[in-house]
Write a structure and sequence with these properties.
This protein has about 130 residues and is an all-alpha fold. The chain is built from five helices and no strands. The longest helix has 27 residues.
Length: about 130
């Protein structure tokens, strides 16, 4: 279902503005909820950590505002567990993901809201996820 929610929904143009907005909000809620669930399953070691990079690479390659917002939710969910694990073999690759996120945060072509979300994520990482659930 991860790839299913990566595609933006086809919203019927005959619907009025409120109905179109509601359909978009439902899509976004499902997408964010889906990656948070995956993140929690990863934290509980119920899924292989290899999935982290499948998800992050896909979201970064899409690069849409929705995909980047989803990336932030995903990394916030699992950051405290995996980013602080020095003995984890995927740490270097996770550092690369955060480096790419930092480049996106500096890209002025991105919407201000998305840049702010990315900067917040990077600030949490710099603070070593203190004050956030582990």
């Amino acid at each position: 279902s991860f790839t299913k929610y990566l595609e933006a929904p086809r919203i019927d143009d005959t619907l009025d503005y409120d109905q179109q907005y509601e359909a978009l909000v439902k899509y976004k809620t499902r997408m964010l909820g889906n990656v948070r669930l995956i993140g929690h399953l990863l934290r509980l070691r119920m899924l292989s950590p290899k999935i982290i990079f499948v998800c992050t690479d896909e979201l970064l390659n899409i690069g849409s505002p929705e995909a980047l917002e989803t990336l932030c939710a995903f990394l916030e969910t699992l950051g405290a567990t995996f980013d602080c694990a020095k003995e984890w073999s995927g740490k270097a690759r996770l550092d690369e993901v955060f480096a790419r996120a930092e480049l996106m945060a500096l890209d002025e072509k991105q919407a201000p809201r998305i840049r702010c979300l990315l900067k917040d994520l990077l600030d949490k990482r710099r603070r070593k996820w203190r004050g956030f659930p582990i």
